[in-house]
Amino acid sequence: MGGPGDPPEGTPEGGPGGGEEEYRSVVFDESFVRAARLQEFSAQERLADHAPAVRRRPPMRRGLSRQALILVLLIAVAFGTAIYMGVRHPYQTPANSGPPAEPLRMTVIPLAPQGKVPGATDTGYLYAHSPAAQFRIGAEGIPLPAARRTAHFSDSQVTNALSIAKDYIVRSSLYPEVLTGDQVRAVRVLLDPDQLDQFDQSFGHPAADGRHAPTGWLVRFDASQAELADRRIRVQGTLQAAETDSSTLEVTADHTFVYALRAVAAEARDAGEKAAEASLFTVRRELHFRFDREDLRLHQTQLVVSYVQAGPLSCAEDSTNRLHPLLAGQTAKAGGPAGTDPYATGGATALCGSLAAGSQPKV
Predict the structure, then answer these.
(1) I need a labelling partner for 338 at 20 to 30 A (CA). Which of 1, 4, 74, 198 fits?
(2) 240 forms bridges with which residues in the sheet?
(3) Cα(207)–Cα(297) distance, rounded to whole angstroms?
(4) What domain of life does the UniProt record list for this protein's source (predicted)?
């Protein structure tokens, strides 16, 4: 008599050694059942919904485990951060950077008038009767010359050097907030990082030592004494670029700036008095800029020489920190800089010049 699991007629002849033997290699575990695309409805579901015997199951979502997904995200974030820091970090030091920038050497020479400073209420009249009559206005007076490639620098690199030098000159000589205020950032951001300490020390602790005079870096007036009577500053000069070695470009700038100034007279205006007469103030700046390829890439420069002549000024006034212009009707104070010991080290010999009469307006 067959067992409870055998067919009533017994095991068919010629068949395998048992029904279980044929499907022993197939395992219908829970994962196999869940992965099936077809699923049989229960009898109750078929009666209630008149549905077909089977339904199609949506495919299972197969993806990365949570740990693997987090690992991928961390790697992507680290990789992105490395790229960002390598491209955007402003203080990266490239492998091919040149030698450190030299300190700026500066000379500021005040020019004393030979008599009273001429003035007029009409600034246009002053300019028209001065040597600056044909000067251009503002940045138009600083045109870029035709750039020619050098042995180791392309046309575009030479043009870039000239453009950066012009940008520095405009910001340090023409920006009103620099001329009559305390703003220096517009100039500072154009300097090579190696010169920033010297720049900051010049404005934090000015000194007439040929290294730390603010007026060697930029033009600025004593705002308590003078203000711009006309923002249309007259300018004339030249820019020249030359290669000094295979890794260095130099730009030489020589420009004359003529400012119309008048005394700060808020009290006089409040009292209903007429506006103070304006006068002209002239600054000649000869600047030497130096560029390596990193400077060109970062739009910055090394200012290595600054030679400034400015007047009318009084030699008795200190022109290290700010320029104290003599205005309409004023004359130079008697005396001059204190004597300088030529045997002493660490100090620059004081200089003062005389402003030629022909440089003043004919009024």
Answers:
(1) 198
(2) 252
(3) 33
(4) Bacteria
